[in-house]
């Protein structure tokens, strides 16, 4: 149990969260990261704005067929990624770690991951903690921390998320974590954060995640207050591309918001946090979940009418577009008022937002889910076409992203 535990103890006094919080007071008060690590009851919440951004408790957990094997996909043996700020333990500490890793290996319970046979670089692999050099902490969630890590044999850089089983049990989120792992490990898209694999020991679960070098989009948004339209349009195009991919796989994310989006080293957007996502082949769910500011009107309906489809992610995309351009969510208010305003579609787009962007927002924030723009229509909307070069839609435009 040595190195991560020791590192965690050593870091106990350091607020890792600080690295991820903007000094901007509004941002700090406003933000309440909703992830599986923040699925806590509303009664524990702080400020009104923070409450609205908290994930709502899951009302009904759908039963998923649980696959026994997980797929991890392409992990190249060389990486062109240059990590300039990687902070690895000293040589002596690394030497000690290697020893402790060896003894730790015997107590870990590795899970065999089946890798797809489409590239000869891949082979079945037992992941375990000793394989990784652990670097600096990247952030902290409610149930654990995320560290920069490097595969000792290949040099592959990734993020290692460490979740404590006891905390998952106490908070009754084991199913949610299992679902997150099942769903995310089967996804491979440039704008969806990759989950390469996972393993566990007696106390902890380790998720091997793609490293998102520029961190949380939320942090960038708070710093900028609002994004310039070209950048916002490129982000929305990337979101549309990712959501199209997810919906094709019958996955609804259900918790789209800036806190759940990370940025890659080149500023490309990566949807993460599949804690509330669901694989719904029949495309219809009636589970109350998500984050109040981003909830669609159909989720507030009672009874048999309370059905919703992947169109919920389209509503959230409208809320996201608004928040990117205005700096706050369109229905932000007291909790009761937010709900009331959502079911009425009561929002105003400020005059400084361009006519094209306003057109996209109002065509996504439509009360009737069937009447919302489709993701294809989002991709070919004049606002997107204006700001995204053909062929680069859905991916990052280097010139803009690198200015951040
Ligand atoms: P989470 O527990 O998933 O909410 O993660 C806590 C924090 O760690 C996030 O807010 C990010 O700042 C950071 N983080 C999580 N995953 C990654 C990743 N794959 N790459 C870089 N930073 C990450």
TrEMBL record:
GO terms for biological process: attachment of spindle microtubules to kinetochore; homologous chromosome segregation; meiotic spindle checkpoint signaling; regulation of cytokinesis; regulation of mitotic cell cycle spindle assembly checkpoint; regulation of organelle assembly; response to mitotic cell cycle spindle assembly checkpoint signaling; sister chromatid segregation. Residues 86-95 have a biased composition (Low complexity). This is Aurora kinase. One of its GO terms (molecular function) is protein serine/threonine kinase activity. SMART domains: S_TKc (SM00220). It is an enzyme of class 2 (transferase). It comes from the Eukaryota. Its EC number is 2.7.11.1. Belongs to the protein kinase superfamily. Ser/Thr protein kinase family. Aurora subfamily. There is a cross-link at residue 257 (Glycyl lysine isopeptide (Lys-Gly) (interchain with G-Cter in SUMO2)). The keyword Nucleotide-binding applies. Residues 13-36, 86-110 are annotated as: Disordered. The keyword Secreted does not apply. It catalyses: L-seryl-[protein] + ATP = O-phospho-L-seryl-[protein] + ADP + H(+); L-threonyl-[protein] + ATP = O-phospho-L-threonyl-[protein] + ADP + H(+). It comes from Neohortaea acidophila. The active site is at 255 (proton acceptor). One of its GO terms (cellular component) is kinetochore. Keywords: ATP-binding, Kinase, Nucleotide-binding, Serine/threonine-protein kinase, Transferase. ATP binds at residues 142, 161, 210-212, 259-260, 273. Residues 132-384 form the Protein kinase domain. PROSITE patterns: PROTEIN_KINASE_ATP (PS00107), PROTEIN_KINASE_DOM (PS50011), PROTEIN_KINASE_ST (PS00108).
